[in-house]
Structures are given as C-alpha cells and as structure tokens.
Amino acid sequence: MIGYLLSREIEKKGYKAIPFAASQVIDWQNQKGHISHKHIGVIAGTGWIGRSNLLIDPVFGAQARYNTVLTDMPLMVDKPLERGCGDCMACVAVCPA
Q1: Tens-place pLDDT, residues 54-81
Q2: At 42, is the secondary structure helix, strand, or coil?
Q3: Can you give the pTM of this predicted structure?
C-alpha cells in the first residue's frame, strides 16, 4: 500500500510512477516477480545480497520487506554499498537448511 500511495503522490507532482509490491508474483512455481527488489536495492545502495540470498540492510539485516516504485521523477542518485557480509556467518549458524 505504501508503494501505491507514494506513486500517487509522485503522479500529483506531474511525474510517472509504477509501484511493484513485494507480494506481486507472476510465477509461483519458480517464485518470480516482474522485477527483483533485491537487485534494485543493491543498485540503490540499500544493502547487499548476503549468504542467505536475501538483501541485507546494514541496520536491519534481512528483517525488511521491500517494494519498488519506478519513476521519471528526478531523485538524488546514490551508489551501491561497498561492503558485504565479510567473515560474518551468523545466518549460516542459525539456518536449519
């Protein structure tokens, strides 16, 4: 809902916006959506993809849910984070798989 509401606010300012909810799956069997929120998060500088194959935020770890809004609104550009999991193995230690 937040992505949808954000898109409406962007459109009120005269720009185009397309929200993609995290729950929007187009192929349940292969768990695919229209876009990869994880890869967009990496490019946007939100985090990195960790050993768990999840997007890792430097503050919240993997405990976040993402959704994406594509827009032509001019935004401040960021860059991918220059860090990763390093020697941390916390997710491996607690993962039953």
Answers
A1: 899 999 988 888 889 999 999 988 888 8
A2: helix
A3: 0.75
